[in-house]
Specification:
Layout (H helix, E strand, L loop, with lengths): L3 H13 L2 H8 L3 H15 L4 E4 L2 E4 L1 H25 L7 E7 L4 H15 L3 E7 L2 H9 L5 E7 L10 E14 L4 H8 L8 E4 L5 H13 L4 E5 L3 H9 L5 E4 L11 E17 L6 H20 L1
Parallel strand pairs: 3-4, 3-5, 7-8
Antiparallel strand pairs: 1-2, 5-10, 6-9, 6-10
Helix pairs in contact: 1-2, 1-3, 1-4, 2-3, 5-10
Length: about 300
């Protein structure tokens, strides 16, 4: 019977393509990864990888084995979840990842509810963007992740993962006076010639700006770049330009800057988990707690 830990190393090599990346992922040396994969090849009796330049590619046999590995890992987790469900109480450790603007509104209320309802459960909260947290859920490094996708973007989850919708976080235009009053009347067209404040190219939020402006018939003139939504709002308040932000990311001190909502624009916030883990009592309880935390926010929006 093949060693499951070695199968997981092969699966991660298929995704990351280098021994160095796999070694960093698992906190072991590259020589240890190489040795484990050689032993797996000895067990299988055929080559599982081939080198192409600086990366390793799977052979046909390797791809078949990786496809089966996903089902093996899922079956083992389903077994663990089923055994855990036989217990009378929810115990153990549960790790929840969240992006920063959902921390205070969703993650912490849900974690507080879990602690009150299940004293034997220890909840760990980690700050991580969906680009990092979703792969970590797949690798079983965390149990659940609060994630988002913009309403105009397609989203595909890796095999074995599922996501449950929690609420919409509308996109809004922030503008200084007098642009704010004009935008409340004429929408984005009123700020077509304004300076824009945006995140760096490649960040998910920049797509929301270009999409919204394109829908309004113009290309934004981006003059300023910021790393955080709070800094962007401060710059708008200081009169440097206008910006599009998710409403949840607008602090109370900056809510007077909101000029208008963005038509057909929102972040759809959800919780992502492994399908095989949903029967685990701690995971099921966390999903319920997140639904409860999201309910008043959804009604408010």
């Amino acid at each position: 019977m093949y060693d499951v830990r070695r199968l997981i190393l092969l699966r991660d090599l298929a995704e990351h393509t280098t021994m160095t990346a796999v070694s960093e992922l698992h906190g072991i040396t590259t020589s240890a990864v190489s040795q484990q994969l050689r032993q797996l090849e000895d067990e299988v009796g055929t080559a599982l990888t081939r080198r192409e330049g600086r990366v390793l590619r799977l052979t046909h046999a390797g791809r078949i084995l990786v496809d089966h590995t996903a089902r093996v890992v899922a079956a083992l987790e389903e077994a663990e979840s089923a055994v855990a469900a036989t217990g009378e109480s929810v115990t153990g450790v549960l790790t929840l990842a969240t992006f920063q603007t959902a921390l205070g509104r969703l993650a912490l209320p849900a974690a507080g509810r879990l602690g009150a309802d299940h004293p034997g459960l220890r909840v760990r909260v980690i700050d991580a963007m969906p680009t990092d947290s979703v792969p970590a859920v797949r690798r079983q490094e965390i149990d659940l992740a609060i994630t988002y996708t913009y309403s105009f973007e397609a989203r595909e989850l890796p095999p074995g993962l599922a996501s449950e919708y929690l609420l919409d976080d509308p996109l809004v235009l922030l503008a200084p006076e007098p642009l704010r009053e004009r935008a409340r009347t004429d929408g984005l067209a009123a700020v077509a010639h304004a300076d824009w404040i945006a995140t760096a190219d490649g960040a998910p939020a920049i797509v929301s700006v270009t999409f919204a402006c394109r829908q309004a018939g113009f290309t934004p003139r981006i003059e300023h770049r910021c790393g955080t939504f709070d800094t962007m709002a401060q710059m708008v308040d200081a009169g440097f330009g206008v910006a599009v932000l998710p409403e949840m990311a607008v602090a109370q001190a900056h809510r007077h800057l909101i000029a208008c909502p963005i038509r057909n624009g929102a972040r759809q916030i959800g919780v992502t988990y492994r399908q095989a883990s949903l029967k685990r009592p701690a995971v099921a309880a966390a999903v319920r707690a997140l639904r409860a935390a999201a309910a008043p926010l959804s009604l408010a929006s």
